[in-house]
UniProtKB/TrEMBL annotation:
This is Barstar family protein. Residues 39-131 form the Barstar (barnase inhibitor) domain. Belongs to the barstar family. InterPro entries: Barstar, Barstar-like_sf. Residues 137-157 are annotated as: Disordered. It comes from Pelistega ratti. Coiled coil: none annotated. It comes from the Bacteria.
Length: 157
């Protein structure tokens, strides 16, 4: 069985994609597009707390920023985004700092919501698949320079 067949098969069902596909970014996106899945890239690189993680997901799927600030709101965001798609979607979650002690519990909550949203997709006979680029701790800020708040980091420079 070829790599391409493995990717296509992996994208047919909801849930987390195998970590081995992280190195096949372009191929995964191509197959997702060919299968009619919407593609959303979630940049979590600046997220240092649950609120920032939630904003990263909302921004990626173009969901209103004023949505709630808990994991129930994230589930609503992912579910409503799925309802808007014909077949479903792929979330490519970048720089997810699950290895950062300050984010470890929140990261687990988000992963739990992703699993729950995937089950919702199965129930709707759609696909919600995701792949997570796990990262360790955030780098320490430069001495004398405070890290930019997440909302400010999204503004064009």
């Amino acid at each position: 069985m070829s790599k391409k067949m493995n990717i296509a098969q992996a994208l047919e069902k909801s849930g987390e994609l195998p970590k081995a596909l992280l190195s096949q970014y372009e191929e995964v996106l191509l197959h997702a597009h060919q299968q009619g899945l919407a593609i959303f890239k979630v940049d979590c690189s600046k997220a240092r707390n649950l609120s920032a993680l939630l904003r990263a997901f909302a921004k990626a799927v173009d969901y209103p920023v004023f949505f709630g600030k808990d994991t129930d709101a994230l589930l609503d965001c992912l579910s409503e985004t799925l309802d808007e798609q014909k077949k479903g979607y792929l979330l490519w979650i970048q720089s997810f700092h699950s290895g950062d002690p300050d984010l470890a519990q929140d990261a687990q909550k988000v992963l739990s919501v992703l699993k729950e949203a995937s089950q919702y997709a199965n129930d709707k006979q759609k696909v919600l698949t995701y792949i997570v680029e796990h990262s360790g701790k955030h780098s320490a800020p430069e001495p004398g320079i405070a890290p930019a708040p997440y909302a400010e980091s999204l503004l064009p420079q």
